[in-house]
From TrEMBL:
Organism annotation: Cherax quadricarinatus
Coiled-coil stretches noted in the UniProt entry, renumbered to this chain: none
Residues the record lists as binding chloride: 83
Swiss-Prot/TrEMBL cofactor(s): Zn(2+)
The name this protein goes by in its record: Angiotensin-converting enzyme
Family in the record: Belongs to the peptidase M2 family.
Keyword Electron transport: no
Record key words, sorted: Carboxypeptidase, Disulfide bond, Glycoprotein, Hydrolase, Metal-binding, Metalloprotease, Protease, Signal, Zinc
Cofactor binding notes: Binds 1 zinc ion per subunit.
Entry's Gene Ontology molecular function annotations: carboxypeptidase activity; metal ion binding; metallopeptidase activity; peptidyl-dipeptidase activity
């Protein structure tokens, strides 16, 4: 209900309110490259949905109680069971160690490109990527390909045939 009922006002037209992720907000994140507008919408949404914290704490208490009832330490252990138990955690850690160097390079590349677009006053030389600049209200997906594409104007190669060959 907190997420469903929350809405924000437009940055450029403050009288235009009622923007939700389904109606306006995601569109702004998809199209805008105005750092101030994106920061305003991102912060406004968080201010409107702050009330979910209390409900989420209650949810976690109940989820941990369910885990304890099943002789598990907490909700994490309960969920790991759905992925094959304790071995999953180790497998995930090993996969992360293999992927980490690539992720760090992609992160640094993305930060550099965003810094070129938005400037050093918005994107620091080191550190986290500003969540409001990643093209998604939750920063779960980096929808900034058009800003960071390494070779603009070039067509993407179709690597399927070469992958099949190898």
């Amino acid at each position: 209900e907190v997420y469903r009922s929350a809405s924000v006002c437009d940055y450029y037209t403050p009288d235009l309110c009622g923007l939700t992720p389904q109606q306006g907000v995601q569109e702004i994140f998809k199209k805008s490259t105005d750092a101030a507008e994106l920061a305003y919408i991102w912060r406004s949404w968080r201010d409107q949905t702050r009330g979910i914290r209390k409900s989420y704490r209650r949810y976690m208490d109940l989820a941990n109680l369910a885990a304890h009832t099943n002789n598990l330490v907490n909700k994490v252990e309960l969920e790991l069971g759905e992925y094959g138990g304790g071995g999953f955690r180790q497998d995930l850690q090993e996969a992360w160690q293999q992927l980490r160097p690539l992720y760090l390079q992609l992160h640094a590349y993305t930060r550099r490109k965003l810094r070129q677009v938005y400037g050093p006053q918005v994107v620091t030389e080191r550190g986290p990527l500003p969540a409001h600049l990643l093209g998604d209200l939750w920063a779960q997906q980096w929808k900034v390909w058009d800003l960071i594409i390494p070779f603009p104007g070039k067509t993407n190669p179709n690597v399927t045939l070469e992958m099949k060959r190898q």
